[in-house]
């Protein structure tokens, strides 16, 4: 069945760095249909159905469709099925991996992404300042919210074995130590203590020699070389624990915010930590703090860049991650921004 989508009525509203369109599908004149793509390890299907039943009929929507993720299909294939069945909103109920896979399948479509955060990081919901803890509120937003258009990152990956993949990310992608830390995360420990499991992974990752030399070309300005431990491309910048890794990142500005962490000695990690936690997380929040920052010398171990396309080639295969999920070893990537390519449901009036 081919999905049929009405012509949307839109209202211009200022969001972030530029105007974006927020869509009100309730004016389309026909009942809407939602689909839920859920990770059975992360959420209770019974609780989901109870909340959906409460809101779908009061909002005047059709019966909701449910699709369960699996190891074989973590969300992309079943999202395509939901679109073919006529879904106007696809609700991702799970962790960051589920959200990324659903968003990848929704890229460029007129269907919107709804969010039921149920993971460790919940990175997209966190950066959109959505409620992270209330299922009923998340489902209500999916049925009664409005659409906000955001950018997506698209990346072509050359793998260690010479094969190539094209992937999408909604929050961040990282090469080097950042991705190695995720690859070293103990899943059983993560299930018990959540985000704190990454502390254990960081400690284990720092035991190894993590420096790497990269050759990169940002927005076609020419090839450059840099020694670094990790390079992170960000569509938005907030991490769990209220850590602001990329303070100038906006989710709808058409560019990546990029950071390279380049410690020469282990003690340099203290300066990096102070930069991220103290300057980005505390000083930037007040006028006095910003004045202090103007008189504080920049540290060479943290380098920020901006651009809409970057090509990176590595001297040796390095770990690569997308939205907190390890992809494996890569030898080169080409990443670019697909501007306003995804609609996300947010509360009306937000």
TrEMBL record:
Region (Disordered): 1-32
SUPFAM superfamilies: NAD kinase/diacylglycerol kinase-like
KW Lipid biosynthesis (keyword) present: yes
Cofactor(s) the protein needs: Mg(2+)
PROSITE patterns recorded: DAGK
Annotated GO MF terms: kinase activity
UniProt-listed Gene3D superfamilies: 2.60.200.40, Probable inorganic polyphosphate/atp-NAD kinase, domain 1
Record's keyword terms, sorted: ATP-binding, Kinase, Lipid biosynthesis, Lipid metabolism, Nucleotide-binding, Phospholipid biosynthesis, Phospholipid metabolism, Transferase
Protein's name in the database: Diacylglycerol kinase family protein
Biological source species: Frondihabitans cladoniiphilus
Lineage: Bacteria, Bacillati, Actinomycetota, Actinomycetes, Micrococcales
